[in-house]
Design goal:
Elements (H helix, E strand, L loop, with lengths): L1 H17 L3 H6 L1 E5 L7 H16 L1 H10 L6 H6 L1 E5 L2
Antiparallel strand pairs: 1-2
Helix pairs in contact: 1-3
């Protein structure tokens, strides 16, 4: 549990500073709000926690992605963000 909390904290800080985590930077992706506003701390925290919770139910999360037309993950939908390409 402490290791998971460290991952969550690190990801939150990284997203706050550079608007993405390291993997997203490598892939050329960025997190933005669906309301065209700056990301809030609450959005980032909710997204990160929900992301790790959805990993526990991976098959259902994968089905959700393919069943919705936006092809957006559940944790992005709940937190009101979307992932876009930067280049």
């Amino acid at each position: 549990m402490p290791a998971l909390m460290c991952f969550i904290f690190l990801e939150i800080i990284t997203i706050l500073v550079i608007k993405r985590h390291i993997g997203m930077k490598i892939m050329g992706l960025k997190i933005v709000s669906i309301h065209n506003k700056p990301l809030s701390l609450l959005q980032i925290v909710v997204r990160t926690i929900m992301k790790y919770l959805s990993l526990a139910f991976f098959p259902f999360a994968l089905i959700y992605i393919f069943r919705n037309e936006e092809r957006i993950t559940l944790h992005d939908k709940i937190s009101g963000v979307k992932v876009i390409k930067t280049h």
